[in-house]
Amino acid sequence: MKSKLRELRTNEEGMTTAEYAVGTIAAAGLGGVLIKLLMSPEVQDLIWKIIQQAFSFLFFS
């Protein structure tokens, strides 16, 4: 009887499914934020300037 109670107390079946669900929701939320950031004109301009500087440094040094 004690072993059965101990097994019921320590049984974590289903916990990994819940953890995957939380991780999936977090990843989707982060992806949404990144898409929103990358679609903003300010961030696009910043990325374009960084790329231009990187290529000008490589080819015109």
Summary, kept brief:
By secondary structure, this protein is an all-alpha fold. It has one domain. It has helices at about 1-10, 15-40, 40-60.
Question: Overview of this structure, please?
Answer:
The protein is mainly α. The chain has one domain (14-59). Helix content is 87%, strand content 0%. It is built from 3 helices and no strands. The protein has helices at residues 2-10, 15-39, 41-59.
Which tags fit this structure?
single chain, 61 residues, mainly alpha, 87% helix
- Briefly note the structural class of the backbone: mainly alpha
Largest sheet: none
Number of contiguous helices: 3
Q: In sequence order, what are the helices and strands, one letter per element? A: HHH
Uncertain segments: none
| Beta-strand content | under 5%
Shape: rod-shaped
Helix content: over 70%
Number of strands: 0
Distance N to C terminus: 78 Å
Rg measurement, Å: 25 Å
Average pLDDT over all residues: 84
Number of domains: 1
